[in-house]
Specification:
The protein has about 190 residues and is an alpha+beta fold. Helix content is about 25%, strand content about 30%. The longest helix is centred in the N-terminal third of the chain and has 16 residues, at about 20-35. The relative contact order is 0.25.
């Protein structure tokens, strides 16, 4: 095994289930519409997701089966407000409420894959990034994303279930990220 493979850093994401109708519209925004917009030059396309945990070392065996996700309550994802920050990977995003089932899922995963790094719920800020960018978060840009996002999700308040993905996020280039494993909660 090369040292590069050992240095590989992985993330675990939660994405909407196939049955979630606004999911496809949300995916078009993050993968095509926003990256193609003159508002966000150089912004990459990516799959909309909630990061459950990151900085996971590459496992020797498939990881998701070891998590016994079928023993957990199906997570409920509830949207909160649109927000913006000054970090590239947390530029304009949809904040997610800390529902008990989502927190239970994150705690279970972190306790299993990162046992020496206890989960601190107060530090967890669940969100779905809508745009990755180094541009200033001007009022015009934020309003553009808010308008497009509200059109995409309509009156939806979130979803139940979804897919848990193990993703190679070791590259700083989002277009090089690769899904390695996936688990779908029963619908």
């Amino acid at each position: 095994m090369s040292s590069h493979q050992q240095d590989l850093k992985l993330s675990i994401w939660l994405t909407p289930p196939e049955s979630y109708n606004p999911g496809a519209a949300l995916s078009r925004l993050t993968s095509t519409s926003f990256p193609a917009s003159a508002n966000f030059p150089g912004s990459p396309g990516f799959q909309p997701h909630i990061t459950l945990t990151s900085r996971i070392p590459k496992p020797k065996e498939p990881l998701l089966p070891q998590l016994n996700l079928n023993t957990l309550e199906v997570p409920e994802v509830e949207y909160a407000e649109l927000a913006h920050g000054d970090q590239y990977f947390k530029f304009i995003f949809l904040r997610i409420k800390k529902t008990s089932s989502l927190v239970q899922l994150v705690k279970h995963i972190r306790d299993t894959v990162l046992p020496n790094s206890p989960f601190d719920e107060s530090q967890y800020d669940p969100h779905i990034s809508l745009v990755y960018s180094n541009e200033p978060a001007t009022e015009k840009r934020v309003e553009f994303v808010a308008w497009k996002t509200s059109m995409a999700i309509g009156n939806s308040h979130g979803w139940k279930g979804g897919k848990v993905l193990l993703v190679d996020t070791s590259s700083q280039n989002a277009s090089e990220w690769k899904v390695l494993e996936e688990y779908s909660f029963p619908e």
